[in-house]
Amino acid sequence: SAEEEQRRVLPVVEALAAEGIRVSIDTVRAETARLAAAAGASIINDVSGGTADPQMLRVAAECGSELVLMHWRGIPDPSHSRSRYADVVTEVHDELAALADAAIAAGVAPERIILDPGLGFDKTAVQGWQLLAGIGRLAGLGHPLLIGASRKRMLAETLTAAGGRDGMADRDLATAVVSALSARAGAWGVRVHDVPATVAALAVAEAWSAPASSPDPAPLLRPDPAPSLLPDPAPSLLPQLGSRCELTGPEVAPTAELREEADANPALAPEPDRIALTGLEVFAHHGVFDFEREQGQRFVIDAEVAVDMRDAAARDELARTVNYAELTAAILAAAADEPVDLIETLAERLAGVALGFAGVTEARITVHKPDAPIDAQFADVSVRVVRRREPHS
């Protein structure tokens, strides 16, 4: 019953939110969603896509929550009587688009809608794999994608068909692989049972796809994958494992004569090499209002540092450049540190941290506050600072 559901989940939501943990409430009942949002849940996850309770979309709009809309055709039927699709990717794509349109019409901000293709919900194993292979097309709807393949029957059928075992540990291993591939294919998030295994898989995928240096003078972030399966990784899924790192620089190293001329006239200097970290997420308690200090909220950070990479590239030595994993950890630690009123102050703090790394001559820091208390519909608010190292400092 709704009463029993609320009795079980609301104290848990409240306790987790009080610890600064971002919470999603999985329910098809609008009243449970409303109460959970009041208790601190920031995401409403409705496996019915907002169709089971006619009040759900209105509640999500009023609460200002992020809303996960999953594709389903009713309570899953083990006999797959509703699993008939002429083209499962096309039909799920179109039905998810209709769900998103209905939510927007009910007042849910488009940027707060997350879509889930509903693996295992009236989809056969084959159809589930077809949907995963079509993530790129589903992402074309313009909303973040949530993938929930963890321990599902489609994994078991694949493992046993290959002559493997079907224990929970085996399914967790397969889930971790799916998580890493989903991240590379553009997923925003994954739902998993065994979190450490997925974290490890994501770390390996990130290390594989974002090497620190490359002999190619053009930026090389990762192998060129098949576009239908492995487009660029989604930064939002890998923020605290080093995030997405972009190395940019002049295609041809300047000659000694050009460098001397640039030193004499800075306006002639080539664009410096840069390392960019984008989409770093941290939960912190910055803000002018008391409730912001008490409840906290999500901040997203983009950091770009200028550092001469020629020596590191020539010697292929990490010690001669900036370790972007260490830079990420330092920025996230500083962002979660002592609360301040203004994100301008926070940006200044983070720029100082970045300039503290040896070899960094300039830091560009952007702090986004996507959940800022603004009485208007908006996509984002951010501040950006550019700070340079003082000469001889």
Number of helices: 14
What's the overall geometry?
A: globular
Mean pLDDT equals: 84
Q: What proportion strand? A: 15-25%
**Number of E-state strands:** 11
Relative helix content: 25-40%
Q: Measured on Cα atoms, how large is the radius of gyration?
A: 23 Å
Low-confidence stretches: 212-236, 238-259
Distance from first to last alpha carbon:
65 Å
**Strand line-up in the sheet with most strands:** 7-8-9-10-11
- The structural class is alpha/beta
Largest sheet: 5 strands, antiparallel
State the order of secondary-structure elements, H for helix, E for strand.
HEHEHEHEHHEHHEHEHEHEHHHEE
Structure explained in plain terms:
It is built from 14 helices and 11 strands. The chain has 393 residues and is an alpha/beta fold. It has a 5-stranded antiparallel β-sheet with strand order 7-8-9-10-11. The protein has a 4-stranded parallel β-sheet with strand order 1-2-3-4, with helices on one face. It has a two-stranded parallel ribbon with strand order 5-6. Helix 5 crosses helix 7 and helix 8 packs parallel to helix 9. The protein is globular. The model is unreliable at 212-236 and 238-259 (pLDDT under 50).
Topology:
Layout: H1 2-18, E1 24-26, H2 30-39, E2 43-46, H3 56-63, E3 66-70, H4 88-105, E4 113-116, H5 125-133, H6 135-139, E5 146-147, H7 153-161, H8 168-185, E6 189-190, H9 195-209, E7 244-248, H10 256-264, E8 274-284, H11 290-295, E9 297-307, H12 310-315, H13 324-335, H14 343-355, E10 360-368, E11 382-388
Parallel strand pairs: 1-2, 2-3, 3-4, 5-6
Antiparallel strand pairs: 7-8, 8-9, 9-10, 10-11
